[in-house]
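Sequence in, structure out. First:
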Amino acid sequence: MKKTLLILALLINTVWSKDLTPTLKIDVNESVKDMVLVGSTLVMGTDGGKLKAYNLNEKKFTKIVQLPKIKDFMGDSIDTSVSSVDYLDGKYLMLSDSGIGGYSDLRINENNKTINIFTEKDKLALVEAKFIDKDNILVAFLSDEAALYNLPNKKFIYREQLNGSKFSNFALNKDKTLAAFASESGEVIVIKPKSGKIVKRLNGINLDNIFKVDIKKDIVATAGKDRRAGWYNLSTGTKDFIQANFFIYATALNPDATMAAFAMDENNNITIVNLSTKDKLFLLKGQNSTLNNIIFRDDNTVFAASDDTFVSMWKLK
């Protein structure tokens, strides 16, 4: 009798996640390494050396930029991997491997013309780049340095070493006044992008490499190699996490930072978590390989890209 009552109590107090399948699958024909959502357009960087823009309303690709091929270690011509993309005011930003010495190429495409910002000759090992405004680009070095590059003056405004570990990922908040930088150390460093000033050092959740980070309002979410799906509250100083049974390769916060998405199992599913209760609300199924990116369009719509050739969209309600 006591055992039966215990089971009933556990069932009553357990919130079960709802399984969902994609309502839209976009065939990109190449693996998407990075993507951003700008209005109704997904801007994607692929391992086929392309930037692709897909309009969700028109349900078609509206722009494709093919980057030049690079040489591999055997001297053969291959497609570069476009590891970071962004868009602002008619300008498409593309960061890719130069194929030489581990250095990067950074380009801007505007009015169907592509110009070089950095090439292998500049000898910069960059991992990520995003617009702060029309004149400034925030970049991250493999060495976990943050730097702000000014386009009109063609120079760095600052270049700051944040951590001694290898850089993993950074994310900007909505108004681009804060950036959260993650590294192999498990520490998250929040800076002001315009000045490089460190605002917060966040520790205590991840003990190993953080693959992805997101920041919305006062919340910073982390996806860790140590199988911890974590979140920090910048205002209260509180922190919490959920232990998973697999590496957590990607994360994203919804616009008001009440929910987080985590890729936290070996089946490439995405778990939507209520951050105040830790309840697992939804399980998003349908991706067939390792997750690279997750984006909330709003509280009801989630996009994800993985190492396969599809970008999926789910409706939560």
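Second:
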Amino acid sequence: MKKNQAIKKTLIFILCLILAVISLMPFVIMIVNSTRSTAQIQQHAVSLIPSVYLANNLKILVGKSFNPAVGFMNSIMVSVGVTALATYFSTLTAYSLVVYEWKARNAFFSFIMAIMMIPAQITMIGFYQMVYKIHMTNHLSMLILPAIASPSMVFFMRQYMKPALSLEIVQSARIDGAKEFYIFNRIALPIMKPAIATQAIFTFVSSWNNLFTPLVLLTDQKKYTLPIMISLLRGDIYKTEYGAVYMGLTLTALPLIVVYLMLSKYIIAGVALGSVKG
């Protein structure tokens, strides 16, 4: 019996190791290729041995009107703003759906569910016309402010909050004289930390990698985000410097890895909490 369990655990460990290697391999290849020349990449696209062209690729990258500092700052401002607004106001909306009793509560939640079914691309034409009419096409704020309304995140937060937040605690805080926003900020938000961290990672990654909306709204190069700059690297009609492209992709992916490492413990805590409640 013990022998069978040991074999089972070994097989599970090997399977998890293989899946981990498969998941990490694209990132390793991307980082290695950022140190290789275009000729080396064209000859052997997959290699695990770093080369010596890292500085040269960075020089080519900057020489192609690619300003990593400008793109990084624009992407950081947009992604952090979107993440902060989406997580806070979505949690606040979910709080109103769980804690308060009002007539149109179920109808409002059904409306949010219906909005989730509408693809963002369908509304882009109308959104662009509105932004153009108010002369805000080259303002990063137009990429940040719409994040206040995030139906999918409201749904996730509501589902997490219903079993996690005790209404007795809210009532006790009210009896003690606490204001509603104080209760939300000091009691509800700390309880929602695992859910907020999980959604923050997904939202940050989605906003950081977003190419469609910035490409539609932004025409000023000083406002370009990193994904736009990366998409323009292959616009050279004479020769595509693949080493520089991989260097740009590496610079784009590094912040995402850092954010995930910072917030991953909250995701694990949220999964563990959900399993205990289940």
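Remark: The CA atoms of residues 98 and 162 lie 6 Å apart.
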